[in-house]
Amino acid sequence: MAAPSKKVLEVFVSKIPWTVATKEMKEYFGQFGTVKRCLLPFDKETGFHRGFCWVGFSTEEGLNNALQKDPHILEGAKVNDRNTFLGGLNGFSFKKKRSAY
């Protein structure tokens, strides 16, 4: 019997200004729902983040609320949140938010 899959409710965000940190990402996306995790990778050589992150929500409602807002503006810059990740270990899917860029 297969274990039930745990849904992953994440949005991939790119074009993040270098002045924005994990704390600001969590605070901003927290207005849409509870942020379960925020992964903002850093470059070991420069010490700056790489300009993209994954924001995971506790509920599908939080994810949908974030996706309905357009555009997302952080530190005066429009960030790109076109892709969402829905699924889990047994049922992973990748969906584009919009068909036209």
From TrEMBL:
The keyword RNA-binding applies. PROSITE patterns: RRM. It holds the Pfam family RRM_1. Residues 9-82 form the RRM domain. One of its GO terms (molecular function) is RNA binding. This is SRA stem-loop interacting RNA binding protein. Keywords: RNA-binding. It comes from Cyprinodon variegatus (Sheepshead minnow).
